[in-house]
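Filed under: proteins

Residues; backbone shape codes:
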Amino acid sequence: MSGALQAPGPDWELDYYSRPILEADGKKRWELLICTTTGLQPAPEPFRWSMACPAASVNSQWLRGAIETAIKDAAAQGYGPPRRLRCWRGSMRAMVQRAAEGLGLELVPSRRCYGLVEWLRERQATVYPQEPGYMAGPLAPPPQPIAPVALPLPEAARGDNWSWATLSAATLAEAGGWEIAFPGLVALPEGLDPSTPVPGIRLFSRRRALAIAGWLSGLEPARLEVCAGQLVLEAGLEDRWILARLPEEEARLASAALAEARERAGGLQFIAIQASEEVPSLEGFWLLRDLPDG
């Protein structure tokens, strides 16, 4: 019916940043990229939208207007408005926050922008090199932020025990049909061999499994790493939480396994939360990707 409100669609992943292209005025091109978050379930073609921004116009007002245009274009193509905006660059968080607030949209600072990162990689390989003013060759890398100190999990979020686990890519592809109280599923890397082993961990808590899953869901879990003899969960934009302290040999083997996953499984990892090893139901399950930071 004409004028009817569309139901909200999935979250949008957003990147508002400069690109390796010099405009005629000698300034770098800025660009807004927006795409929908995709999960494991079969879904329509993801919404993708881009708009160039003059360097002199980089501000929250321009961004707000561009997002409004994107929402209208999405509606014209049959996509609902976003439930939330996910922003993966900490340096742009304040500007995106102001634009989102002006539109009544919730902003989620998150590294779980896997579809956006892959699209940006595609553009860096096939789109930008074809543009006039493209700056070929190695560019000076941005300064790497100092990683915050990893903090111990709050007492209420600690399980009774945990274990390493491995699932095949074929098994993970079926996760969309599992009963999960707090799901965090994302599309698997394209072309992934179904037999590829994917590393992960299982957290167990007989009394607090559901509460722990709810708490973890709000963290936006991004990836696992082994650092200084600790198993660390990276979450949000820069949060780091200590899941366990590891003996030296176990830390070495775990670090090697995660590194191999980056090579063989596109950085894929997982976290499962269960009441116990004997209980098959999942209170929480997240697919993670070890992708570069923005």
